[in-house]
C-alpha cells in the first residue's frame, strides 16, 4: 500500500478515536453535572385527601390487555378489573424503613443465600447481595447482559449500589433491591396486596379502554436517552433513579407508572418457573434496547433475586 494512503488511513482512524473520546467525555461530564444538581425530593406528602392517603382510586373496567411490539405481550385479550385503590407513587426508602423499624424484617438480599435451593452458584453469588447496573465503557453487542449487570455482595435496599453506598438523603427515592416476598411482606403489613398485572396495566392506561397503546418514548417518565448502555444523555434530567413524583402524573394521578423502576405484580410469568411479571420499564429502558416504557410491556423476574432497577407499589380493594 502506498505510504500516503497509509498515512491518510492513520489520520482518519486517529480522528475517529478522538471524536469518540470527545463524545464520551462530554457525556460523562454532563452526567456528573446533572447528578450533582438533581433534586432529592419532588413530591410533598398529601395527608387526608382520600380515604386512603397516598393512594388513588382506579375505577373498574374492561379493556384489551397486552400489546404487539414484543412477542411476550400478546395475544391481545379482553380483561375486566374491579375498582381498586393504588399507591400514587412507588414505595419509597422512607416508607420501607418505617416497615423494617416496626417489624425487624430482613430482606432476601440481606439473608444467607440458600445454596441447596440454588446449586452451582458461582462463589460471589453465594454471598447475600443484589444485581446492580454498572455502566460499561464499551460493549460487544447487547446480547450479553452481564456486560452491565453485576451481582454485588453486600448490595441491598440499605446499600443499593453495594456495601460502600447508602440511602442517606434518599428518603424520597423508591426502594430497590426488593425481592418478591419482601414486597409482599410490606404490602401485608400495610393491610394491602401487590397489584395483579391486569390492575397495573389498566391503571397505567389511565382506566381508558379505547385509548391506543402509546409507542413513543414518553417525555414524562424517567427512562434512558442515548445509546444504551454506553451513552446516557440524561435529557430527562436524571442520570439514574429519580425521587418519586418528579414527572407529571398520569390522568389518574399516578406517578412513575412508566419508567423509574420496574414494579412487581403478583402474576406468575407463564414460561419462566419461579418468575413473576414486572411492569412499566425503568430508567434503563432506551429506544435502541428495551422499548418497554409502555403499559402493555412485561418482563419475567426471578422472585428471589433482588435487583436495583425494580421496586413496587401496593393496591387495596375498596
Ligand atoms: Ca433518565
Ligand atoms: Ca415505575
UniProtKB/TrEMBL annotation:
Q: Which residues form a coiled coil?
A: none
Taxonomically, which superkingdom? Bacteria
**Gene3D superfamilies, A to Z:** paralog of FGE (formylglycine-generating enzyme)
PANTHER family recorded: FORMYLGLYCINE-GENERATING ENZYME, SULFATASE MODIFYING FACTOR 1, 2
Q: Kindly state which keywords UniProt assigns to this record, in alphabetical order.
A: Signal
Q: Which residues form the Sulfatase-modifying factor enzyme-like domain?
A: 53-315
**Looking at the keywords, is Signal present?**
yes
**Which InterPro entries does the record match to this protein?**
CTDL_fold, Sulfatase_Mod_Factor_Kinase, SUMF_dom, SUMF_sf
What protein am I looking at?
Answer: Sulfatase-modifying factor enzyme-like domain-containing protein
For this protein, the record's Pfam families field holds: FGE-sulfatase
Residues spanning the signal sequence:
1-19
Single GO molecular function:
formylglycine-generating oxidase activity
Amino acid at each position: 500500500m502506498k505510504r500516503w494512503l497509509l498515512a491518510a488511513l492513520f489520520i482518519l482512524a486517529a480522528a475517529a478515536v478522538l471524536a469518540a473520546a470527545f463524545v464520551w467525555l462530554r457525556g460523562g461530564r454532563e452526567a456528573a453535572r446533572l447528578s450533582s444538581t438533581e433534586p432529592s425530593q419532588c413530591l410533598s406528602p398529601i395527608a387526608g385527601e382520600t380515604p386512603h392517603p397516598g393512594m388513588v382510586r382506579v375505577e373498574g373496567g374492561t379493556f384489551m390487555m397486552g400489546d404487539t411490539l414484543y412477542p411476550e405481550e400478546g395475544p391481545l385479550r379482553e380483561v375486566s378489573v374491579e375498582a381498586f385503590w393504588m399507591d400514587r407513587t412507588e414505595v419509597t426508602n422512607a416508607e420501607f424503613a418505617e416497615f423494617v423499624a416496626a417489624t425487624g424484617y430482613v430482606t432476601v438480599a440481606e439473608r444467607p443465600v440458600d445454596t441447596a435451593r440454588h446449586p452451582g452458584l458461582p462463589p460471589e453469588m453465594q454471598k447475600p447481595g443484589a444485581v446492580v447496573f454498572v455502566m460499561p465503557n464499551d460493549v460487544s453487542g447487547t446480547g450479553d447482559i452481564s456486560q452491565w449487570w453485576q451481582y454485588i455482595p453486600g448490595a441491598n435496599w440499605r446499600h443499593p449500589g453495594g456495601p460502600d453506598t447508602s440511602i442517606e438523603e434518599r428518603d424520597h427515592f423508591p426502594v430497590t433491591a426488593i425481592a418478591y416476598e419482601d414486597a409482599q411482606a410490606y404490602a401485608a403489613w400495610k393491610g394491602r396486596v401487590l397489584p395483579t398485572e391486569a390492575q397495573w396495566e389498566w391503571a397505567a392506561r389511565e382506566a381508558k379502554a379505547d385509548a391506543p397503546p402509546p409507542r413513543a418514548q414518553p417525555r414524562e417518565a424517567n427512562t434512558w436517552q442515548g445509546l444504551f448502555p454506553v451513552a446516557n444523555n440524561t435529557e430527562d434530567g436524571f442520570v439514574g433513579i429519580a425521587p418519586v413524583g418528579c414527572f407529571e402524573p398520569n390522568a389518574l394521578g399516578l406517578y412513575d407508572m412508566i419508567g423509574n423502576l420496574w414494579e412487581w405484580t403478583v402474576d406468575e410469568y407463564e414460561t419462566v418457573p419461579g418468575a413473576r411479571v414486572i411492569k412499566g420499564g425503568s430508567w434503563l429502558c432506551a429506544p435502541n434496547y428495551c422499548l418497554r416504557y409502555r403499559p402493555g410491556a412485561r418482563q419475567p423476574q426471578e422472585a428471589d433475586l433482588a435487583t436495583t432497577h425494580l421496586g413496587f407499589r401496593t393496591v387495596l380493594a375498596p
